[in-house]
Amino acid sequence: MTGSPSLPGMDAQLQALAYGVKVAGCTVHLVDASCDTGPIVLKRTVEVFDDDTPEVLSACILEQEHITDPAALRRPLTRPWRLHGRRVILP
User: Fold this and answer.
1) Hey, what CATH topology would domain 2-89 get?
2) Segment (H or E) for 64
3) b/e map of 35-63 (b: 16 or more CB within 10 Å)?
4) What pTM was estimated for this model as a whole?
5) pLDDT band at 38, cuts 50/70/90?
6) Between the CA of residue 33 and those of 37, 39, 57, what are the distances in Å?
7) Is the pLDDT of residue 3 over 70?
């Protein structure tokens, strides 16, 4: 699952701009009972610029998702892994 633990839900880019963050991104995490709260497998970030719109920020993040999602899926399928608390350990 891709989402953001810091800015959960469908409007994460709008939340990021409203909050004034300087870095946003995408997080691939294991699914649990809540929205965007599972243990993190992989994360990538993008810089947020003062003139970004939700659409521009979404497009930048989508580029990173296209890199992150396949890599994050490949890791637990091709390497042993375990959970240690909330951490996904990929030796």
Assistant:
1) Rossmann fold (3.40.50)
2) helix 54-78
3) ebebbebbbbebebeeebeeeebeebbee
4) 0.80
5) confident
6) 8, 12, 28
7) no
The single-letter code of the amino acid at 76 is P
Residue 73's SS3 state is: helix
**Is the distance from CB of 43 to CB of 27 less than 8 angstroms?**
yes
Query: At 75, is the secondary structure helix, strand, or coil?
Result: helix
For residues 81 and 88, is the Cβ–Cβ distance under 8 A?
A: yes
Amino acid 90: pLDDT: 84
Q: Encoding tokens for residue 10?
A: 């469908």
Return d(Cα 33, Cα 1) in angstroms, integer.
Answer: 12
Residue 31's pLDDT band, with cuts at 50, 70 and 90, is: confident
